């Protein structure tokens, strides 16, 4: 399952395999406890210092990887019965901190590239994208007690 970052969010480090001419960076090897069914796989890009936030899924489990660039993910737990209720936590994925970031439903999250160039995020999700199963807020909405600061 990996190391818990906030209740419902886990990180499992993965080591790239250095080969002649480049590296191999694994993501998923078959279905497991965090991906019990396959819905879709897609790449997103994140611009430097430009947050994509906030989103909360009601059903989708995200399995995120950053094979290129560096991305800061921020999580907020507004689930009243959660042991991490009210907490805001950030976590960075990059080539230097490569691994699988699992975000279970019910957690607010947003992200932004913190590298100088565009970053690439891979999501291997348990369900196909369905707009009605998630809600969004503006990156600067005060409902989430976090200020995006890139100084």
Mind explaining what this structure looks like?
- This protein is mainly beta and 151 residues long.
- Helices cover 0% and strands 46% of the residues.
- The protein has one domain (3-128): Jelly Rolls (Sandwich).
- The chain contains no helices and 13 strands.
- A hairpin with a 2-residue loop joins strand 3 (17-19) and strand 4.
- The protein is globular, with a radius of gyration of 15 Å.
- The mean pLDDT is 94.
- This is dTDP-4-dehydrorhamnose 3,5-epimerase.
- InterPro entries: RmlC-like, RmlC-like_jellyroll, RmlC_Cupin_sf.
Level-2 CATH architecture: Sandwich
Label the overall shape: globular
How would you spell out the order of helices and strands?
Answer: EEEEEEEEEEEEE
Number of domains: 1
Largest sheet: 6 strands, antiparallel
CATH topology: Jelly Rolls
DSSP, total strands: 13
Radius of gyration: 15 Å
Give structural attributes.
Jelly Rolls, mainly beta, five-stranded antiparallel β-sheet, RmlC-like_jellyroll, EC 5.1.3.13, about 150 residues, dTDP-4-dehydrorhamnose 3,5-epimerase
Outline the secondary-structure elements:
Elements: E1 3-6, E2 9-13, E3 17-19, E4 22-24, E5 40-46, E6 52-57, E7 62-68, E8 70-76, E9 88-94, E10 99-103, E11 108-113, E12 119-125, E13 134-136
Antiparallel strand pairs: 1-2, 2-10, 3-4, 5-12, 6-11, 6-13, 7-10, 7-12, 8-9, 8-11
Organism: Mucilaginibacter aquatilis
EC number: 5.1.3.13
Function: Catalyzes the epimerization of the C3' and C5'positions of dTDP-6-deoxy-D-xylo-4-hexulose, forming dTDP-6-deoxy-L-lyxo-4-hexulose.
